[in-house]
Design brief:
118 residues, mainly alpha, two-stranded antiparallel ribbon, 2 helices, 2 strands
């Protein structure tokens, strides 16, 4: 099994600005991706349409980044996957196969424990 990498370090943001989901160095960003920050106002202040749009874009980018991180973690955990395999369907298929394999292996080991205990 491949070692898991530690989570990215947290980066301090300017007051009133929430940093993007991935605050790692720029060399780890995907080409063509832009980073925006959410606008946060004091209680009772309304957001402008542009600020709402910026918040929506930032939230969507964070959601997509979290999905990418999840797929990257699956690639690290499932031994039949390699980092060059970026097809989400393939990643999910091989992950299901690996979970089924682990469940079958668990049943076998539980049976061996029961036999050894008798």
């Amino acid at each position: 099994m491949r070692p898991m990498h530690p989570p990215p370090p947290l980066v301090a943001a300017a007051p009133g600005v929430i940093p993007p989901a991935d605050s790692r160095d720029s060399d780890t960003r995907r080409p063509g991706s832009s980073r925006t920050s959410r606008v946060v106002k004091k209680k009772g202040e309304l957001l402008t349409e542009n600020e709402k749009k910026a918040n929506h874009i930032a939230s969507e980018q964070k959601r997509r980044q979290n999905i990418r991180v999840g797929y990257d973690q699956l690639i690290q955990i499932v031994p039949t996957l390699t980092p060059s395999q970026r097809s989400e369907a393939l990643i999910l298929q091989k992950t299901v196969e690996y979970i089924r394999y682990l469940l079958m292996e668990r049943e076998i080991l539980e049976g061996q424990v029961k036999e050894a205990g008798q």
